[in-house]
Amino acid sequence: MTNIIGYLRPDIDGQNVQSQLDQLKAAGAINIVQEKPAGTKRNRSQLDNLIAGARVGDTVMVTSLDRIAHNTRHLLEVVESLNAVGAIFKVIDNGIDTSTPQGEVLRQLLVAITDFERQVVRERQAMGIAKAKQAGRYKGRKPTAMAKTDEVLALNAQGLTRQKIADQLGIGVASVYRILKNHTTPKKTRKKVQKKPVDKPKRVERKPTREPDTEQLSFF
To answer: Hey, what CATH topology would domain 146-182 get?
Structure first.
């Protein structure tokens, strides 16, 4: 049996819930997943759980695109994630259905648009860097991990493991090891003094003294 899951996200003030509920139920949604009103554009835990639990044949339905994605790239990620497990994505207000040929065309269009947006961003960054270099204001990008050196050292002083430091600061554990290595004073090791072997005095072998032959010395 097909599992039709409706997803709704209220406005920031918690409004626009009943309208979405009515539309989702009228379209056949059996289970309704509601995002928390406090959820930010990028923090949508209920949506993440929904996608992680989607299975082959499931249908995920929303009333409009702005209820599920915060930009084109995010929308493509949602569609591709559902498509990878064999689930269907539907949008009520514009009739999008990824199980149809038109839905596949939409997916391909999203891929093209996302690639275009990435290229535009790269070109703008390149232009900005070029202008900054001409003006002598470009110093290069500071590595993210190295910018957290002080925090790494502080957490290390508290006794946290390398892995916990990396997880807490959102950097790689290899970066943690590198920072600690660069900021740890190596311990001085004492050089072992090799003792010169002491020449033992040569043992002088004494020849046994021959006692005089009493028989020969006796005149009697």
So the answer is: Arc Repressor Mutant, subunit A (1.10.10)
